[in-house]
Design goal:
With about 260 residues, the chain is of the alpha+beta class. It has 2 domains: about 5-140, Fructose-1,6-Bisphosphatase, Chain A, domain 1 (2-Layer Sandwich); about 155-260, 3-Layer(aba) Sandwich (D-Maltodextrin-Binding Protein, domain 2), CATH 3.40.190.80. It has helices at about 5-25, 45-55, 90-95, 160-165, 180-185, 200-215, 245-255, and strands at about 35, 40-45, 65, 80-90, 100-110, 110-120, 125-130, 135, 140, 155, 170, 195, 200, 215-220, 235, 240-245. The strands form 4 sheets. The chain has a 7-stranded mixed sheet, sandwiched between helices. Strands 11-10-12-16-14 form a 5-stranded mixed sheet, sandwiched between helices. Strand 10 (about 155), helix 4 (about 160-165) and strand 11 (about 170) form a beta-alpha-beta unit. Helix 1 packs antiparallel against helix 2 (about 45-55) and helix 5 (about 180-185) packs parallel to helix 6 (about 200-215). The protein starts with a helix and ends in a 6-residue tail after the last helix. About 45% of the residues are buried.
Length: about 260
């Protein structure tokens, strides 16, 4: 049975702030790190934040999926599942840069119903609840309006932006290391659109997905379909996010250049 979304949002806000305070204690300090999988960095901070968030959020009746926790797939049997990235943008965190975040989303029936992305260095708390809009530090946010691509500020993989720039005069913005934060910048209207390449995971996307949609934007795969979360394999193809009208224009441009995106 679905849980109380308002209560879940309050719990998430508190947990993200506490997690941010914990991560900041070792930020720009001496901290042990190593690599996992395909050259993916992880640090003591990732593990510590993961443990804290699990203590605060993983209550009985909720599934759990985190980048830093072994996936036992028991989550597939729960009606509600927390999907968490303890530190999204670990490379930025280890390099002393500010563009990393902590994010989590509550999933029901494959879609996020509560989501938050917190950027501790700048103390930016982004929260959304399905049907209730999205906020930054308590103030409503909106994706930019209009369908113009000329002059639009777009973030994403350099190879994607180069392929698209031949058909428009979009402006590439500097790299945002946290994918969740990159997409959230669309939700707050700081940039007009963002893309992510294939192989992003549930924990990279779910919270920002809800923020974008609640901010009158759209986040989909390149076919225009919404993402489904908490499946057996939590990996996705390339995605694009923008305000609704500009999102449609982005998809049309991508279709005209489809051979370049594979």
């Amino acid at each position: 049975m679905p849980h109380d979304h308002r209560r879940a949002a309050e719990l998430l806000r508190s947990a993200l702030r506490e997690a941010g305070e914990l991560a900041l204690k070792t930020f720009r300090g001496n901290i042990r790190s190593w690599t996992k999988g395909h050259d993916s960095p992880v640090s003591e901070a990732d593990i510590a934040v993961d443990g804290l968030l699990r203590q605060r959020l993983a209550h009985p009746g909720y599934g759990w999926l985190s980048e830093e926790t072994h996936d036992d797939r028991a989550r597939l049997n729960e009606s509600s599942t927390w999907i968490v990235d303890p530190i999204d943008g670990t490379r930025a965190y280890l390099a002393g840069k500010s563009d990393w975040s902590i994010c989590a989303a509550l999933i029901e029936d494959g879609r996020p119903v509560v989501g938050g992305v917190y950027a501790p260095v700048d103390d930016e708390m982004f929260l959304a609840t399905a049907g209730q809009g999205a906020t930054r530090n308590g103030q409503p946010i909106r994706a930019t309006h209009g369908d113009e691509l000329a002059g639009a500020h777009v973030a994403g993989p350099e190879r994607y932006l180069k392929r698209l720039s031949s058909g428009s005069t979009m402006t590439a913005v500097p790299k945002i290391h946290s994918l969740a934060l990159r997409l959230t910048r669309v939700a707050e209207g700081r940039i007009d659109a963002a893309m992510a390449s294939f192989n992003a995971h549930d924990w990279d996307l779910a919270a920002a997905d809800l923020l974008v949609h609640e901010a009158d934007g759209a986040l989909t795969d390149l076919a225009g379909d919404r993402l489904v979360y908490n499946l057996h394999n939590p990996v996705h193809g390339a995605v694009v996010a923008a305000g609704r009208a500009r999102h449609a224009a982005m998809l049309e441009l991508i279709r005209h250049n489809r051979k370049d995106f594979g």
